[in-house]
Design brief:
Helices cover 20% and strands 34% of the residues. By secondary structure, it is an alpha+beta fold.
Length: 217
């Protein structure tokens, strides 16, 4: 199957069943899981691979699927004042701090700091493949379900907006467009999933593509 079957009686239950069978399980220790591939900006463009002499900084993001009758994915638009990736669509998350006990703890902490999403509403389910970005981050995507009702409180220094996109839209491969643009004097290729006024691309679109590959392909 190439996309969520909108004819199923319960799309949320269908998603949970697929995730349980196909995602990497939650690890017992503080490190990244050993299984899985290394995905990244180099998937569509090998020249975008991170040079081996540049160390990758560990990070974790939350891939939050909201438990609605028609499930959605909660995304953010980063503040235009940020020095890196300003104005881009992103998952809640960020760098793993020394005080974070696990990557899951880092993703939950960042989500609460950025958008006020309380951990009590979040249930981690498993991991996608590690994503290596050209900007030097080794990102572990933590797939989780978010139970409504919940209230968000955005940190305006980091997040300009938070919004939900239907999971069915994001998991439909016909929406996984391949775009190109000039970057540092050369043309690069990347995934993009435009949705209304939101241009979802780059790392965020690449991780969503991996979610489709793992759960629905």
């Amino acid at each position: 199957m190439n996309a969520p079957d909108t004819a199923v009686a319960d799309p949320l239950a269908d998603f949970l069943t697929r995730v349980e069978a196909r995602l990497q399980p939650l690890p017992a220790g503080p490190g990244f899981p050993d299984a899985g591939d290394i995905r990244g900006d180099h998937d569509l463009d090998p020249s975008m691979a991170l040079p081996p002499d540049i160390p990758a900084r560990p990070a974790a993001v939350l891939v939050p699927v909201v438990m609605r009758p028609e499930p959605t994915v909660l995304l953010t638009r980063r503040s235009s004042a940020l020095p890196e990736h300003s104005g881009q669509i992103a998952f809640p998350g960020g760098k793993i701090d020394p005080d974070d006990s696990t990557p899951i703890a880092a993703a939950l902490r960042e989500a609460e700091e950025e958008i006020g999403l309380k951990p009590a509403h979040v249930a981690p389910l498993g991991f996608l493949d590690v994503y290596l970005s050209r900007t030097g981050y080794r990102i572990l995507p933590v797939v989780a379900v978010v139970t409504p009702p919940f209230e968000l409180k955005l940190n305006p220094r980091e997040v300009a907006a938070a919004f939900e996109v239907p999971l069915a839209f994001l998991m439909a491969p016909e929406h996984h467009e391949r775009h190109t643009r000039l970057w540092k004097g050369r043309e690069r290729t990347y995934y993009a999933m435009p949705y209304g006024d939101h241009y979802i691309w780059g790392v965020t679109a690449g991780i969503l593509r991996n979610l489709w590959e793992r759960v629905y392909r």
